[in-house]
Amino acid sequence: MTPIQLKTGAPGARILGFGSYRPRRRVTNAELSEVMETNDEWIQSRVGIAERRWASEDETLVEMAVAAGGKALAASGLAPDEVDLVVLATASLQYPIPGIGPQVAHRLGIPRPGAFDLNAGCAGFCYSLEMASNAVRSGSARNVLVVGAERLTDVTDQSDRATAVIFADGAGAVVVGAADEPGIGPVVWGSDGDQHSAIEMVAGNDGKMIMAGQTVYRWATTKLTATLEQAMAAAGVGPDDIDVFAPHQANLRIIESMHKKVGFPERTVVARDIVTTGNTSAASIPLALSALLESGEAKSGDLALVLGYGAGLTFAGQVLRLP
Amino acid sequence: MSEDIQAGLAEILEEVAGVAPADATPEKSFTEDLDVDSLSMVEIATEVENKFGVAIPDDELANIKTVGDAITYITANRG
């Protein structure tokens, strides 16, 4: 019997470069308070958002993903033909056939890569990062482009002030490649499918999303601190080693609660991109980390702790070395 | 016993929402009188579970409007 031969992968994987795309249109709380029963104080005190970006008609999921992916590719220093896999994390594609991963790859000039969409809600980026790391380490791809892209305004009920003030649009991307020293730690992931209805699109609501805010808040602030601790332990690091804490940008109060519970040192930089970006689901972590790298608050070589969590309910966390 | 619960609840309210302990009296409405929002109510529920061992699920939490309601609920469900 002829044995099946396996490929030899890389000893580790790391992020080679970041890219992001923020829609042109800024929407302030003052603007929202003109069209719905809300105000700046209400929004800032509950979710910590001052303004968010909403995509215009021409800023489609594909266009935003291509823009972010192209920047990540440029930052990585790789040519398009060095990428063998594209993972497109999104939960807001209105017509999911076909998935947009292949089209985004084609637009970026990546010749015939493996390409697919991944829906793990707001945990999509961290799930995709694990896929990418595994592909590089198993030898099934030399380099992987991961894009988180969302147009949540398409699936948000704009008359529901509980969600309309929170959800927004944008895209963030990374290129993952081989490394002798691992730059992506082991993922700690899971799901709580008994709470599937906490965030869902429902036919009775014109297919728009509804969210049980208190349920999600309780879950995030009580169940996920352990995931953060496990992700650090799995990578062999502790809170004192973390330079940048960049959880999914869902709600500033959840970010502050997690930050307090884990007990990071004073010097740890905390991503608070939600304040000017809103909640962009699978795009939020690469958007937040891109912003910190661009502003210089985070720098190359920093150790970052990330955690995605959301619809499903799903969650995934890992420790990363920033490029 | 209900005084213990009221005092414990007052501590939680002070920590979570900055409510002065003297203001945490049974007739006070969390949202109307004490300016506690829906997410702070979740934090209060979490702390009640830690302190008294009484879980308050979201659907029950919706029925707890006053400090007195919370005291009654904790008293009834404490093992």
Shape of chain A: globular
Please tell me the CATH architecture of the largest domain in chain A by its name: 3-Layer(aba) Sandwich
Q: Please tell me the overall pLDDT of chain A.
A: 96
Please give the alpha-carbon distance between the first and last residues of chain A. Answer: 45 Å
Largest interface: A-B, 13 and 10 residues
Q: Work out the count of structural domains of chain A.
A: 2
| Biggest sheet character of chain A | 5 strands, mixed
Order of helices and strands of chain A, N to C?
EEHHEHEHEHEHEEEEHHEHEHHEE
Q: Quaternary arrangement of the chains shown?
A: heterodimer
General shape of chain B: globular
- CATH topology assignment of the largest domain in chain A: Peroxisomal Thiolase, Chain A, domain 1
Radius of gyration of chain B: 11 Å
User: Architecture of chain B in CATH?
Assistant: Orthogonal Bundle
| Average predicted confidence as pLDDT of chain B | 91
Number of domains of chain B: 1
Radius of gyration from the alpha-carbon trace of chain A, in angstroms: 19 Å
- Strand fraction band of chain B? under 5%
Please, could you describe this protein's structure?
- The complex is a heterodimer of chains A (323) and B (79).
- By secondary structure, chain A is an alpha/beta fold.
- Chain A has two domains: 12-179, Thiolase/Chalcone synthase (Peroxisomal Thiolase, Chain A, domain 1), CATH 3.40.47.10; 188-321, Peroxisomal Thiolase, Chain A, domain 1, CATH 3.40.47.
- Chain A has eleven helices and 14 strands.
- Chain A has helices at residues 29-35, 40-47, 61-76, 101-107, 124-138, 161-164, 213-223, 225-235, 252-262, 274-277, 284-295, and strands spanning 12-21, 25-28, 51-54, 85-89, 114-118, 144-151, 169-179, 188-191, 199-201, 209-211, 244-247, 269-270, 303-310, 314-321.
- In chain A, the strands form four sheets. In chain A, strands 1-7-6-4-5 form a five-stranded mixed β-sheet, sandwiched between helices.
- In chain A, strand 4, helix 4 (101-107) and strand 5 (114-118) form a beta-alpha-beta unit.
- In chain A, helix 3 (61-76) crosses helix 4.
- The longest helix of chain A has 16 residues, at 61-76.
- The radius of gyration of chain A is 19 Å and the shape is globular.
- The N and C termini of chain A lie far apart (45 Å).
- Chain B has 79 residues and is mainly α.
- Chain B has a single domain, classed as Non-ribosomal Peptide Synthetase Peptidyl Carrier Protein, Chain A.
- Chain B contains four helices and no strands.
- In chain B, helix 1 packs across helix 2 (38-52) and helix 1 (2-17) crosses helix 4 (67-77).
- The longest helix of chain B has 16 residues, at 2-17.
- The radius of gyration of chain B is 11 Å and the shape is globular.
- The mean pLDDT of chain B is 91.
- Chain A binds chain B through residues 45-46, 212-215, 217-218, 221-222, 251, 253, 257, and chain B through 37-39, 41-43, 45-46, 58, 61.
